[in-house]
Amino acid sequence: MLNTLSKIFCILFFVQTSYAQLIPITENELSDMSGQAFINVDRLQTAKNSSNQTIDTTKITLGLDIKTSVNADLLDLGNYERNGSAGSDIRINDFALGRIDSDGKIVPFEISDPFIELAFDTDATGKENLIGLRLGFGGAKGALSGNIESLTGKINIDIFGKAAPVRASTTWLNRGLLSLAGISDTTILRAGAELVQANGVANPVRATTVGIPNGDNLNCESGCGILTGVALALLGSNNCNVLGIDTCFPIDIYRTLEVGNKQANGSFTEAPGLFLSFLSEKITWEPGTQQAETGAFLNVPNGGLEVDFEQAFNGIERARTKYVDPYYD
Amino acid sequence: MLTHIMINSLRFITLAVLPILAHSDLIPLNDSTLKKIDGEGIGIILEDFVYQAGEQANGGTFEISGLENSSGQSVVLGISQFYVAGSNSNRGVNVIDNPVNLGRLQYPYNIELRDGNDIAITDKAVLELAAPKKLVDLSYFQTSKENRVERRFPGKQAASGQRVDRITGLDETIFSTRGSERADLGIRFDLEVGGTDAQSLENHVKGLAIDGSYVRLWGGEDRVEAEVNFNLYAEQIEFRACDSIGTNCGDSVNFNNIGIEAQLGDGNFQPVTFEVTSAGQFSFLVGSLEGKCPIGTTGGCEAGSAKLRLEEYYTSGPSTNIYVDNVRIGTAPVNTVGNFGSSTISNLQIQYLEVTSHDL
């Protein structure tokens, strides 16, 4: 008896010296846990359908900051026969986000607050018919590289710089006319370019060309003569041409595009508006924005895509995107 | 009697003192010891598995609350149905009598301790959690390649080599074999905004298989590191909206015959890590390739063994392929508005990815 008691006493005595306990969390404590506001869910009535009627959307936003550097052989979205022609709504070879600088540092592509938004067209019986969705980002900045073979979307490029490359690209006769109009090599001109067909008609569907749409003008910013404004106003772009100067360019010569809001010091901040949508009906997602086309549609925000006239004519050099990069090594 | 008490006292003293004299510690097994352990692992099979939750099925439901919209109103996601069943569940209608086998004896889910040296995770003991193996240990994607001869800018060096031109298709035997092991699953969210029922959102996945997926975990320098292989093959993923009892549903968006083969991380050359900060936020990292080689004048690798390792990474390292045979809204016929054909992301390689959460 004593033998058994001594063993039990001994075991109990020494067990008492350990203080660690696993204590379950009570329901009350658990119920105090909140969702950290990491997810927002919105029912919105800000989008409009192709008939300009307000439609409902449901938007789920995640509170995330993402920095990345990726490369892909191919991004090919919406590969089907459209209006009788085979092809893809969006097709980009050697696609990359982010770049590597000359010191070997990764300069990541940065995005924040990604969201998915579903668009509904409600019919007379109250059915909410899903007519499309988009994957978007609250903000984005960084280098987007690739050889763009086909693009359905919105890319507005601001062409801004000295007129010398413009003058150099035309005939001596037209150069004389430009001089008469007060446009010298140092005159600063500006023009807005967007996705167009080869004849200059603005068209965001399966575009292979970016340029000044028919009827739009070059604008003089500084160094202008007395007649410059009048002359430029008379010379709208027509069929991708102003005074013998090409105003449309293959989009695949722009190998790296900087997405974001360009600051005065040349740096970039995140810009809202980058999204990719799939739609069966044209939708204007937010007031004051360009209507998104049916099919796959890539919307690149304004503000960062600024090139000078030399870049407009010759393209933008692709940035290094790999440590062993066939475009460099 | 006295002798007996003496003996027992001695026993007591011995028992009391000996543990004090024992100085043995619990010493963690190091990686070189652990990696020599060669178990066959534990195979897990769930036969005739069905899961059904939600108010429709059993009177119970669960809610995700504490969410807000951008105006600060409360949002509640009531999950009124969540199911895992056999294929042909008809969007969760045919669940209880329609079980699925998750794994089978020849192809079970597996938990195994592996020698890292066998799987390119040098000198580490690796815990592997794996879904059933593929029938053939190859990618299910068929690709065609093209020669790349392009310049980064006029007059600059021409890039050569091959790249994927297109994914010509997905090996659809994945959708016609092992039918009893492919699951249907779905979820229905009843969305309530500011105390008002807004809509019911449904997501249904048909014929899902995750064959060949695995997570490998090992001890890094100061945290757990991982390598993730995530494969997903499904006959259809569907999104649609209905009224609160799942009727009067509108047109849906369908992603048909989907394949995702995502490889994240490359052993201890490029580990994946996951952390939760003291502020309750999480951070997910796919390690950066920065600093993996001596840098030349234009930012690339100088010649040497480190460059060869990176060449190997770009040639045959971890990559992600995504292919959707058809994206369709409603019942739009082929090559009409609303039927968007195939979509592909091919040979996507992540050199660096950092995802951190924050409050909205």
Observed structural traits:
heterodimer; A: 329 residues; 6-stranded mixed beta sheet; 6 helices; 22 strands; 42% strand; globular; B: 360 residues; mainly beta; 15-stranded antiparallel beta sheet; 4 helices; 21 strands
Instruction: Tell me how many strands of chain A there are.
Output: 22
For this structure, the quaternary state is heterodimer
Ends apart, CA distance between termini of chain A: 86 Å
Helices and strands of chain B: which structural class?
mainly beta
Beta-strand content of chain B: over 45%
Radius of gyration of chain A in whole Å, from Cα? 29 Å
Helix and strand run of chain A: HHEEEEEEEEEEHHEEEHEEEEEEEEEH
Label the overall shape of chain A: globular
Q: Report, as a whole number of angstroms, the end-to-end distance of chain B.
A: 78 Å
Percent helix range of chain B: 10-25%
**Structural class assignment of chain A:** mainly beta
Query: Count of helices of chain A?
Result: 6
The description of the largest β-sheet of chain A is: 10 strands, mixed
Biggest beta-sheet profile of chain B: 15 strands, antiparallel
Q: If interface size is counted as residues with C-beta under 8 Å from the partner's C-beta, which chains form the largest one?
A: A-B, 90 and 97 residues
Strand percentage of chain A: 35-45%
Could you provide a short overview of the structure?
Chain A is mainly beta and 329 residues long. Chain A is 14% helix and 42% strand.
Question: What would your notes on this structure say?
Answer:
The complex is a heterodimer of chains A (329) and B (360). With 329 residues, chain A is mainly beta. Chain A has six helices and 22 strands. In chain A, the strands form five sheets. In chain A, strands 1, 2, 3, 4, 7, 8, 9, 17, 20 and 21 form a ten-stranded mixed sheet that branches. In chain A, strands 10, 11, 12, 13, 16 and 22 form a six-stranded mixed sheet that branches. In chain A, strands 5-6 form a two-stranded antiparallel ribbon. In chain A, a hairpin with a 5-residue loop joins strand 5 and strand 6. Chain A starts with a helix and ends in a 15-residue tail after the last helix. Mean pLDDT of chain A is 85; it is low at 7-19. Chain B has 360 residues and is mainly beta. In chain B, the strands form four sheets. Chain B has a 15-stranded antiparallel sheet that branches. In chain B, strands 2-6 form a two-stranded antiparallel sheet. In chain B, strand 13 and strand 14 (196-208) form a beta hairpin. Chain B is globular, with a radius of gyration of 27 Å. The relative contact order of chain B is 0.11. The model of chain B has no long low-confidence stretch (mean pLDDT 85). The interface between A and B is large, with 90 and 97 residues. Strand 3 of chain A pairs antiparallel with strand 21 (342-357) of chain B, so a sheet runs across the interface.
